[in-house]
Amino acid sequence: MTMKKFLHGVAALVIMSASVATLAWAQDAKPAAPAGEAAHAEGEANHAAEPAHFPILHPKEQTWSFAGPFGAYDKGQLQRGLKIYKEVCSACHSMDLVAFRTLEDLGYNEAQVKAFAAEYTIPKMGDDGEMADQPGLPSDHFPSPFPNVLAAAAANGGAAPPDFSLIAKARGVTRGFPQFVIDIFTGYAESGPDYIYSLLTGYNETPPEGMEIAEGTHYNPYFINGKSLAMAQPITDGQVTYEDGSPETVDQYAHDVSAFLMWAAEPHMEDRKKIGFRVMAFLLLFGAMVYLVKRKVWSGIAH
Amino acid sequence: MSGPSTYHPKSALGRWFDARMPLPRLVYDNFVTDPIPRNLNYMYTFGGILSIMLVVQLLTGIVLAMHYASDTTLAFVSVEKIMRDVNSGWMLRYMHANGASFFFIAVYLHIARGLYYGSYKAPRELLWILGCIIYLLMMATGFMGYVLPWGQMSGWGATVITGFFTAIPLVGTWIQELLLGGFSVDNPTLNRFFSLHYLLPFMIAGVVVLHIWALHVVGQTNPTGIEVKHKTDTVAFTPYATVKDGFAMVVFLAVFAYFIFYMPNYLGHPDNYTQFDSLKTPAHIVPEWYFLPFYAILRAITFNIGPIDSKLGGVLAMFAAIAVLFFVPWLDTSKVRSANYRPWYKFFFWLFVVNSIFLGWLGSKPAEGWYIPAMQVSTLYYFAFFLLIMPLLGLIETPKKLPNSITEAVLEKNKGGSGHPVGAAAEPQTKG
Prior knowledge:
The complex is a heterodimer. Chain A is built from 11 helices and 4 strands, in the order αααααββααααββαα. By secondary structure, chain A is mainly alpha-helical. In chain A, the strands form 2 sheets. Chain A has a two-stranded antiparallel sheet. Chain A has a two-stranded antiparallel ribbon with strand order 3-4. Chain A is globular and about 80 Å long. By secondary structure, chain B is an all-alpha fold. Chain B starts with 11 loop residues before the first helix and ends in a 16-residue tail after the last helix. A two-stranded antiparallel sheet of chain B has the order 1-2. The interface between A and B is large, with 73 and 82 residues.
């Protein structure tokens, strides 16, 4: 009987430790969102107009093909997302860590990747020691739209647009208690793409009455760092042409580019989940066998 | 190990070896025939689990170091190269990063078990203190390791934590600059942290050897807190403890694997996927989750105490929160070890556990509004548990009647349980 209590104790401790653990994650760099909501609930015009905690609204949770233990990227979606990045985002946002060769993950063959890379010109040093623009190779990384971070900042009102290589893992909105505990059991790990989707589709809202929006910035209640951001709505319906018949809407664009950015940040996710399943299956089976052995060994001993 | 060695090598090579360097005898005596109390429960398996976590961290860390570059211009990118281009690099790195967290989960459960069963009482004071030293070394290692990926939280965490030292009068700034290798977190900081992050785990391994040595001299405690009196109180380490520890390890590794493969970034901070920028301060700088209770204690001191200003007071409180652990063997005045026989201590112990978790939660919150008084009350209880409750409760509490021996306790429990005698008919969970 005491044993039972202990097992419960252990379980409780594990859950509690894990809960505390999650706080490191749950506490994002930004103040807790629930506090912002509480302010709303009070209905004070002041708070609604000048909230102190961001984002004003929680990201909208979406369904992703790559979510869950058996999740996998939708290659068609990644290809559409790449098209959006190339035609829209890459005008301002670099993606330094992603090499063209890895685009084979998106279902392209070697020749297609080679052709894709060659569409870019990348300044390289020739054999004569002079810098010259040359067509990109599969081994090259996506070139930055600006020569350096100062140029990027100067061209964008003082703040350089963030690099996109890891953006899907570098943004996470506080989930709050008890959601962050529930997340352990549901395996929720899509806060990055949910955030990007919400931001991209969150532009056309009217700011609450009395809210001051700084000049040159754009209200977006999903922005993690304030009530408005320097980037104007980057994409509108019909802006990018899809060849596979997918709807050419902001909603679809936002889904596709968020999925693509998740891939860019975590290119080995599919491998990870596949190996994970084998590891888990092995450990559970092995664990069951060890348990049976343990029972047998201890069967003659009162303890 | 207790009693004379019963190791008899069967082969000629074994005898030859034994006469020259009896390492197999040492292993045999300590991990095969060593008698352990027969009533150990699963809370006693975390020592073994911690050993394999140390090995996991060493092995993954050594391979990661082969691919890592400790230079401020390269560190962040080299970690991403590991994640993207190194074969199975993502797995090694996720194992190592989550491994640190699971190492701490195991060590906190291990420490909690020690506090619950009074494992620190004579003659195990030194065993406990060696454990505290390991914990301290783990904290230093974990902190320095978190700096290496050179993300925003790496750099800013290092800035904040090394900044604590400036609170120390006279030598504070000197210590801080020594740690940083300059006036702010920069390349010299990264290099020395990398060097120390590689060194400290081997020091941990050394102290672990001493910890296990001390353990095998005094023997393990057990849930009754009564010392082993007779041979019937014990079973042989192998197969009994080996298979039980083995099962617990597999279960622990399964939870660990769940995090590595399905939510590898859950325990980390999103800001650490942005490269460190010494000109851009994050809105809230938070340390790794396993330091959060201490971070709350640090920030609970918002007032000056005589000549001690709030900053120094906070730093002293934080260090005292760890230092107090070293004195636990002498702070607890109770003659009874196990909380099972100390109803009041049991209550205060669980309150301490809940309070520590609450402190961790507070540590993740900004120091504003009601969080501050909450941090202060929680901090007060944290210290009161060690400095008031432990010494006083031992003097005034009436413990329950202790059984005469481990064997008696075990037989009593089995009789009272399912009504069945010893053996296969018992419920699985009563057999843990």
